[in-house]
Amino acid sequence: MPQDTIPFLITYGDTSFLLSSMEEYNQLPDSLKQPEVLQQIQSYLSENYPAETNTKDTPVVFMLVSTFMFFMFMKMIWSAKKELRKTSDENSDPHSAESCLTYKGKELHFTTEEIKSVCLKYNSYFRNLSPEKQSRFIDRVQQFIRHKDFYIYSSKGYKEMPILISAAAIQISFGLTHFLLPHFSSIIIHPEEYFATDPLRILVGNVQGQSITLSWKHFLDDYQKPADGKNVGLHEMAHALQVQYLFTNHRGAGEFKADFEQYDRLDDEIMYKEKTKSTALFDYNALRNKNEFWATSVELFFEQPEALYKHYPNLYNSICSVLNQDMLNR
User: Fold this and answer.
1) What confidence tens digit (pLDDT) does each residue in 217-259 have?
2) Helix count (H) and strand count (E) of the chain?
3) Rounded to whole angstroms, what are the CA distances from 127 to 114, 223, 320, 327?
4) Which residues contact 10 (CB under 8 A, 6 or more apart)?
5) Is 148 helix (H, G, I), strand (E, B) or coil?
6) 3-state class percentages of the chain: helix first, strand second, coil last, to nearest 5
7) Under a CB-based contact definition with an 8 Å cutoff, are residues 53 and 46 in contact?
8) Best CA proximity match to 144, nearest among 17, 237, 25, 263
9) Residues in a beta bridge with 205
């Protein structure tokens, strides 16, 4: 099978996505290439296919990656079939606990005043914008909603759900020309913590495939505490933005990647400092891997910009460049 036609699934914690070729993989920043994945494959092949592993005529990395791609591709097919069976079972029973409310974004028609009222009440970032920027923000929220489908795992939905979650996406992308995150077609909302499988765990938010999933309880609680440095909405949108610009052939990706690589040169050193002498800015989850560190850095950028700049001015300035925003000079 040709190397550039094999799908490659990459997973970081609660975020996963698919690359279509090794060329896309090679274009990623070094921090996102997961060398440990290749080590695991090499170990697997050494145990199960020692003759093939030692073949001199075939590049070792190509063999390892190709085998891993095929394995993950088959796993994805199995998972997709399982999900289809699950969906079929749910649809056959409208009273199932797993049934959900579905709202097509293009059928949701919130007025400018409705969006403004909700954002003024819950979103401090919006409140601090000038009237002109508030108008542009509202227009972007309306566009974002029209391009998404919303799935609410509850017996009742509220207009605040699509409005505020869309506003979180617009907040993080407000300085960028392209803000619709077209890779993600679905917004999934659970009333509180929810179970995820493979592996089994409890989550309050995650990004996977073409979906962004959030716990509404935690999302709303975090926006009601806008300066504590914790915001699951911004956290997951940071993951989504990273996937959109680094792992898809999206317009504007070149400039974003160049700015992100500047940020990427800093995070290793800062993660090391935080592990050895914590400033109490970054928690354990942020230091698990570079992907989580990025999302947590974005949370701090919006909720505790003074503290982030005080401790790590270069990190703060690099995020300013990536997002084309400056929270200290708005």
Assistant:
1) 999 999 999 999 999 999 999 999 999 998 887 777 888 999 9
2) 14, 9
3) 15, 12, 20, 13
4) 16, 17, 18, 19, 25, 32, 34, 37, 247
5) coil
6) 60, 10, 30
7) yes
8) 237
9) 214
Distances (CA, A) of 264 to 31, 214, 275, 314, 329: 7, 27, 17, 11, 23
> What beta strand segments (E) does the chain contain?
8-12, 15-19, 101-104, 149-152, 186-190, 194-196, 201-203, 205-208, 211-215
Per the CB < 8 A criterion, the answer to whether 213 and 205 are in contact is yes
Let me know: does 256 contact 247? Beta carbons within 8 Å: no
Report pLDDT digits (tens) over 57-69: 445 555 555 556 5
Instruction: Indicate the SS3 state at residue 267.
Output: helix
The per-residue b/e assignment along 143-156, b for 16 or more CB within 10 angstroms, e otherwise, is ebbeebbbbbbeee
User: Residue 280: how many CB atoms within 10 A of its CB?
Assistant: 9
DSSP per-residue letters across 53-116: HT-SSS-HHHHHHHHHHHHHHHHHHHHHHHHHHHHHHHHH-TT-TT--EEEEGGG----HHHHH
The tokens of 180 are what? 């619709």
- Sign for the CA dihedral angle at 256, 262, 264, 270 comes to negative
Q: What are the φ/ψ torsions at residue 186 (nearest 5 degrees)?
A: -125, 135
136's tokens: 């542009």
Say which residue the tokens 């909720």 belong to.
303
Give burial (CB, 10 Å; 0-12/13-18/19+) of 9: middle
What backbone torsions phi and psi does residue 250 show, to the nearest 5 degrees? -100, 145
Residue with tokens 């290793």: 268
- Enumerate the β-bridge partners of residue 188: 151, 213
Of 275, 263, 267, 277, residue with least CA distance to 323? 263
Look at residue 191 in the predicted model and tell me its pLDDT: 96
- Which residues sit opposite 104 in a β-bridge? 149
Q: Which position has the token pair 């001015």?
A: 313
Nearest-angstrom CA–CA distance, 139 and 136 = 5
Instruction: With CA atoms as reference, report the closest residue to 173 among 324, 45, 26.
Output: 324
SS3 call for 293: helix
